[in-house]
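We modelled the chain as a single entity of 245 amino acids. Its sequence is:
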Amino acid sequence: MKRFTLGFIIGGVICSALTGFAVEYAVTANPFPIRVDGVAKSIEGYNINDSTYFKLRDIADAVGGFTVGFANNTITISTQAEQSEPASDDEPITIHEGEVSQRRFAREGDTVIKADGTEVVLKKGAHGVLGEGQGVAPDLGLEVPTGGNRRVQTDRVFSGLTDFKDSTGKSVVNARYYVNKLTGEGHWGSEWMAMTSEPTTEGTFEYQLSEDKNWIWLGGGWIDMSVQNPTDADLQTIRDANGLN
């Protein structure tokens, strides 16, 4: 009987060292058609030593019932029970921060579970922005359907911001999600503009943070923290300068 295995293929040949000797297996493309509940599916697969392997995310997309993500250098798998759509679109949902998932945009009353397990119930702040001052990025990892394709708000922050990506990984530049790496707070660009503006007074020392921690005084001017991508060392310098440790 042909066996089918979920897994990842890294190279064209797999070498397994066991008790001093190596075993090599040739890798060929899966030659068999694939049907899910009777429906033909195009899923890239590999045949190795009479077993067929598929990429885990491809199986999740074809079969459903679970989602696959990558956050904090960890591969994450969430079952449908954990991220199922509510019976009513008005009911609150649970969001696992940073995980790629198919759901609606975050709303007031939804619960965000951070990487450290902390649970935060979303609410609007003084400027009417969801999650303002709560230190979470609820729409990070969100998959959004656009026509026949999907574009993904990925969990990768580059130059302080995260772009929508389509199924090929191409950036879709008309929607950007900015994350303040110091506070962990994330918002869409229009939300950041609504809730924060450049301080009107000059800073008094290098790396000084504004009261809302969204601006930093550096080199004689204020810099927007949400569009920066400071290293861990930079973040520690900022904390030290502002007595945040």
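As a brief sanity check on the tokenised model: Residues 1-63 form one domain. Residues 1-21, 81-87 have pLDDT under 50 and may be disordered.
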